[in-house]
Amino acid sequence: MHAKDQKIHERSYRFRNDYVASTPSWYRGEMHLGFTLLFTGGVIAWCLFQLEQVRWQEWLIALPIFLFGNWAEWAAHRYLLHRPSKYFNAVYKRHCAVHHQFFTHVTLEYDGQREWRALLFPPFAPVMFVLAALPPALLVGWLWSANAGYIAMTTMAAYFLMYEALHTASHVVDSPFLDRLPLVNTVRRMHVIHHHPELMATRNFNLTFPICDALFGTSDLKKGVWRTLFHGSGHVGMGEEEKRTLGVEARDEARQ
Predict the structure, then answer these.
(1) Out of 1, 135, 189, 244, which residue is the most buried by the measure of CB atoms under 10 Å away?
(2) Residue 204 region, left (φ>0) first, then alpha (ψ -120 to 50), else beta?
(3) Closest C-alpha among 172, 127, 64, 69 to residue 77
(4) CA of 58: how far to CAs of 13, 44, 47, 144, 241, in Å?
(5) Residue 187 in contact with residue 209, Cβ under 8 Å?
(6) Average pLDDT of the chain?
(7) Rg of the Cα atoms in the chain
(8) Which pTM does this prediction carry?
């Protein structure tokens, strides 16, 4: 391991030990995850049961809602979670001072349910997400149809579950299956880069598919949207600045 990475590794594990030791005795990661799944899944199920005689055109609302979700995820991550602000300073501190100290590009793994407290969104997050999604869904329902409104809410709730699933998969290390899975392997690779302390505030803000990262120039890859999405693993196409930060060239030369 590179000397700089070794220091990051040691600092991260000192923080991990302190954080896990300070975790309340009543905390159970299974209950944390269970609430997220039951609440969000319940919203999806309720909305689907409200659908009546759906026309195929009404399902098309899922695409713009998905793309809006991708932008909202990217923008919130870039401008709220990685920048201090007057009204969102608490979430900034929780994200940068906890999540990014607990997990770095060399300490991305998690061990046991007590560490899920640093991995998963807090339990209030899915509730806030659904409440924030309600006005757009009501607007769609008013402008188009009730079915379209329910489909919009279903899509946004499902997006949250996808976000949590892909983010958790990005913290699973040494998984040949995930490393070979198209799209998912790209997400996993880009999340590793994002967790480098020197790159976390400037690169790879999409936690799901890096559509907005490619469109708005925050990807570490110098490629278009399609080639970024299906990049997979490896560093071909990475910017020179990012390579120097990661020491990629030095490691490649050492292997040769």
Answers:
(1) 189
(2) left
(3) 69
(4) 49, 16, 14, 8, 45
(5) yes
(6) 92
(7) 20
(8) 0.90
